[in-house]
Fold these 2 entries.
Entry 1:
Amino acid sequence: MLRLLLFRILLVSTLSLALILSGCQEQAAPTAPAVRPPAEVGVVTMTPEVLVLSSELSGRTAPCRIAEVRPQVGGIIQKRLFREGATVRAGEALYQIDPALYMASVASAEASLARAEANLVPAKLKAERYAGLLESRAVSPQDHDDAQAALKLAEAEVAAAKAAVESARIQLNYTTITAPISGRIGRSSVTAGALVSVGQATALATIQQLDPIFVDVTRSSSEMLQLKRQIASGTLKTDASGAAKVTLSFEDGSPYAEVGKLKFSEVSVSQSTGMVTLRTEFPNPKQMLLPGMFVRATLEEGVNETALLVPQRGVSRAPDGSAMVMLVDAEEKVAVRPIKVLRTIGENWLVQEGLNPGDRVIVEGLQKARPGSVVKALTFGKVTAQP
């Protein structure tokens, strides 16, 4: 009986120990690790687009024509015939110089002409008469030659007298000082009663033609060289006329309504600044632009018909300063690609080399993208927040 009891106790203990060991083994058995989904990244697909390239340059306005009003004869100013700041036309009378002295010169020259013409009549008759008498040998050849010489001398004196009359009349006309060009006239430096002379240092007034008006801007020679290379290679295309369009904004940032055009660029580079001067022309019918104003001109350089723009947030810099982007390749893996950029266009970089149409550039979730890792590419802006 006692043996049977001990056997039962031993059996229960053995079974209990087996159950305990089985439970421990089950608890110690490793569980399969959970599979994490690929990280989501936002991408922008490179698509060629037509882009008008432009540069914003600072400059100043200048009149297209400017003329200083100066006296061509001396005398006393009798009156001023214009209103300062007004618009005058070419040939319009501006000042009147006392003409009395010049009127007397005209009268004297006319009297000299009358005397020369009176002397011409007998000299002409004598020459004609001697020509007829020479045939009958009534006069000597010497007398005939003297008569012909006297006639030519009388004709020369008449011609000189006529020139003197014309010169005197020109001097008389110069007593009325007229506008050499049309435009806006500034303030007058003299008043009635002032004595003026030929060659004086101070101009009487200045006339400036303001419609159209020039805007002179400057840009670096390196930019000019790069622009010419792009046009030569066909990257940029210009219109048939080659006259680039230009828009303008005032110093306060407000736009100017009229559109201008590029006239020419200077043929030399400034040795002190390395800049080239460009001259643009703008219509100025309302004369909103005045000479000497500071403005900003936006110059259209050309059209890039296959431009690739990548957001600035997707471009990083290597230690040497070169630009690079991270792409999602055909195997949905992250790849690093070095690129070359030309300039910023708004919030984007204009790509010169390194990217092709269809490339998917990562611009969102860069901190989760590792070169060679598999990612899930979503359109930029549709990436969901992940823990």
Note: Residues 100-135 form the longest helix (36 residues).
Entry 2:
Amino acid sequence: MNGKERIVAALNRQPVDRTPVWFMRQAGRHLPEYRKLAAEHSFWERCQDLDLCTNITMQPIQRYGSIDAAIVFSDILTPLPALGYEVEYGGGIRIDPFTFDDVDDWTAFSARKHAPWAADALKAIGEERQDIARLGFAGCPWTTSLYLLAGGTGDKEFHNTRATVFSNPEASERVLMRMADAVGHLLADQVNHGGADAVQLFDTWAGLLSVEDYQRLALPATKRAIEVFREQANQRVPLIHYAKGSGHLHHVIRTLDIDAVSLDWRDDLRANRTAFGDRFAFQGNLDPSRMHGSPEAATLAAQRVLDEAGDAPGHVFNLGHGFAPGAQIDCVEAVLRLITGESA
């Protein structure tokens, strides 16, 4: 099997010849070739320039060889400029001020018109490499809106921002639902134009919410985003859902129209596979910090993940969150050798 066949089969809970593997944030900060480009081009240049974006997306494939999927280099805040907000990166994220009245002036978001870059890059990759899976992604409405309301990353754990949401429930719901439409269209474009074989929704900050607040605020908007995506996409492709620190929410997340649940490193992979492996594929869930030490320690930890996953169909090896800049290339190589059965 090639990488594309392996990823698609696993996400559909079908047999594979070996565990497929890719890594969240695999294209980016831990690679010296990426850091060289980052020093020469702004973040938005890296996203919007087709050659740069495809180059960055393919860097981990070219370096490591045995990774089964290329996830497009992009960002969950991609919809915001089209809605009227400048987003600046570097030493944190800064976003133009937002007020709830702004929503009345938001344009109807069109991914083809306002943010076509991710889909364009996926299409270009498919024209060159048909043997690897192409993955698109977007941020869930809750997490994307939280950054917008906070004006970036200055509000630690979004205490003030969440207070604003809780104090303005109806206005916040309008923001979330409008954001949901943008997210759904963004994902659909990556399938329709980009040819994505699967897509992933990131809800990094869902874990900050209680079950009650998640059901009231985040869940309806995520459900709406998925409905828009399913309606607009010209074919059904697997949808992976990831929410960091969300173990207490999984029974609610499983009610969404998703095909795979991406677990973080604190979640019990074996228990999830045993209880729900007949309904969902599971992705994960190596602690990213394991990639910062010795290759031997990384390999031992990866073997535990494989043991917990078991042999039944429906597991994609990944991290429990994305690579940090300090991830070590020799650790990644050692884990890949373990998964693929290749010798050093």
Note: The beta strands are 69-71, 87-89, 93-95, 133-139, 198-202, 239-242, 260-262, 281-283, 315-316.
